[in-house]
Design goal:
It is built from two helices and 20 strands. It is mainly beta and 295 residues long. Strands 5, 10, 11, 13, 14, 15, 18 and 19 form an eight-stranded antiparallel β-sheet that branches. It has an eight-stranded antiparallel β-sheet with strand order 6-7-8-9-20-17-16-12, with no helix packed on it. The protein binds 6-O-phosphono-beta-D-glucopyranose.
Length: 295
């Protein structure tokens, strides 16, 4: 595998011998491209997304930490901006590891780091805990994996949430079915946060913003199908929740960096995380979570 750093040191690209590739911005450690060997893009990124570090990227895989959404009632994170600071902080590139027993099964892992030592002063003021995070992005011929380890390096406990806000590219949202969430409880964020139970597959016919806690557990894949054909399968490791988000017409119209405005037809966010309730980390404890998206 080939791993390159851009000239201005703002992004890392990796290409497998068989042609698959990924691109990761150091800003937010945001994965902004994942292409299969034919060069087909698997992630949706808005045409109006800012990639210059002035705003969280609208698309790709922004990383949500230490708070999902905003938490006005959670004192420790109530000051933080929506979805926390991970997606708007500059991460360090820690290096790559590659494996290649033959060109057909090559893989590459890129590691990124963020800690209270490298965090900017403003974020540090809003969330004064001592932590370190390592985020790993792994590309194989037919999958993309993202995993995070957050360690409490300080002397007081903290509570956090984490989520990989993955914008999957699809051809036509009206043809999409999401399976693996049957019989699962979810919080419906577009219906007064009511708790409901999913019956059957999920289809998208309007603004959708739901936090599922899948009944089947993390190893059961969440599968996105289009016109009956499975296109993505998401397996989680130690991430109990799955957010399903599509802004649909009106919400997309109101999001300044969402373009084209009918781009909601070509994306669905399937977001693996631990966001219902909080994960408490005692000094020395670590939170580990990962997802693998297969095509
Ligand atoms: C989703 C949330 O995960 O992210 C939605 O459930 C939110 O409520 C969406 O609108 C996008 O958030 P943002 O901050 O990137 O506009």
């Amino acid at each position: 595998p080939q791993v390159n750093t851009s000239h201005d040191n703002s992004r890392i690209t990796a290409v497998l011998p068989t042609g698959e590739s990924i691109e990761v911005l150091l800003y937010g450690a945001t994965v902004i491209s994942w292409k299969d060997r034919a060069g087909n893009e698997k992630l949706w990124v808005s045409e109006a997304a800012k990639l210059d570090g002035t705003k969280a990227v609208r698309g790709g895989i922004p990383l949500v930490f230490p708070v999902f959404g905003t938490a006005p009632d959670h004192a420790a994170t109530s000051q933080l901006p929506q979805h926390g600071f991970a997606r708007t902080s500059r991460w360090e590139f820690l290096g790559k590891s590659t494996s290649e027993s033959g060109p057909a099964d090559a893989s590459v892992k890129l590691d990124f780091g963020l800690s209270s030592n490298t965090l900017d002063d403003e974020a540090k003021k809003l969330w004064p805990y001592t932590f370190s995070a390592i985020y790993s992005v792994t590309l194989t011929a037919d999958s993309l994996g993202t995993g995070i380890v957050v360690t409490n390096d300080g002397d007081k406990p903290f509570e956090c949430q984490v989520l990989m806000h993955t914008y999957l590219r699809i051809k036509d949202i009206t043809q999409v079915q999401v399976t693996g969430l049957e019989d699962s409880e979810y919080v419906d964020k577009v219906d007064a946060a009511q708790v409901k139970t999913q019956s059957g597959a999920v289809t998208i016919t309007g603004e959708t913003d739901r936090v599922y806690t899948p009944a089947q557990g993390p190893a059961e894949p969440v599968v996105v199908s289009e016109a009956g054909e499975a296109v993505y399968s998401v397996v989680r490791d130690n991430l109990k929740d799955v957010v399903v988000w599509n802004p649909w017409t009106e919400k997309a119209a109101g999001i300044a960096d969402f373009a084209p405005k009918d781009g909601f037809k070509n994306m669905i966010c399937i977001e693996a995380g631990a966001v219902r309730g909080w994960t408490a980390l005692e000094p020395g404890d670590a939170l580990e979570g990962a997802q693998t998206i297969s095509i």
